[in-house]
Amino acid sequence: MAKQKFYVVWNGAEDGVYTTWEACQQAVSGFSGAKYKAFKTEHEAEEAFEMGYEAYKQIEVAKQEKQEEMTESAIPPTPTKGNVLRELPAAAINEAIAVDAACSGNPGKMEYRGVYLRTGKEIFHYGPVHGTNNIGEFLAIVHGLALLKQKGLYTMPIYSDSVNAQLWVKKKKCKTTLERNEKTEALYQLIERAEAWLRNNTFANPIIKWPTEEWGEIPADFGRK
């Protein structure tokens, strides 16, 4: 059985949200310059209708441009510094990003990054700052989630090899015991921003545990072990 769709008519004989194609067709048939579109959910349809056609169109164009920008920018002609192009395990999802952190001492100089798996291109990097490896793993996942949402990539998976970080993201709280002082204040402000983002945003991107023992080091690994 086909799933029900919802139809928005922005410019027709009678504008509104329709629950059948027949009703929508009746509203736009023979109407010069009719503007309408089908949506999967009633919420999406109502939101788009309230937004108005021009605003909705601008958002969709911007979303498409961001998707193209991320895809195109993630295809280097050859591996370069910061890129880790390697053959992926057959079971790995290549349309995904992998994140990892590294720390010289724990606490110590910490940095994290994200890598686009299909090409091995580094798509974001932060640090080094004084911190811990677990904090870096947590921030890397949140950074990846925020970036994917900004780019409109709402279902692209994120691989992480840190169980702790994934649990912290799930609980929307960085459970670190690192002392908050002058040396770590900037990092703590970043942690608070990440926690606030998790509280104020929803996401559908799967966060998947990278099986290191089976697949080897995660492609975002800094290679310092």
Task: Give an account of the 3D structure.
The chain is 38% helix and 22% strand. With 225 residues, it is of the alpha/beta class. The protein has helices at residues 21-28, 42-51, 53-73, 133-150, 163-171, 185-200, 212-215; strands at residues 6-11, 16-18, 35-39, 97-105, 108-116, 121-131, 158-160, 207-209. It contains seven helices and eight strands; from the N terminus they run ββαβααβββαβααβα. β4 and β5 (108-116) form a beta hairpin. A five-stranded mixed sheet has the order 6-5-4-7-8, with helices on one face. The chain has a three-stranded antiparallel sheet with strand order 2-1-3, with helices on both faces. α4 (133-150) packs across α5.
Mean pLDDT score = 87
**In order across it, which strands form the biggest sheet?**
6-5-4-7-8
Number of helices: 7
Order of helices and strands: EEHEHHEEEHEHHEH
Helix content: 25-40%
Distance between the termini: 53 Å
Largest sheet: 5 strands, mixed
| Structure class | alpha/beta
**DSSP E strands, number:** 8
Strand coverage percent: 15-25%
Q: C-alpha Rg, in Å?
A: 22 Å
| Low-confidence parts | 71-81
Overall morphology? elongated
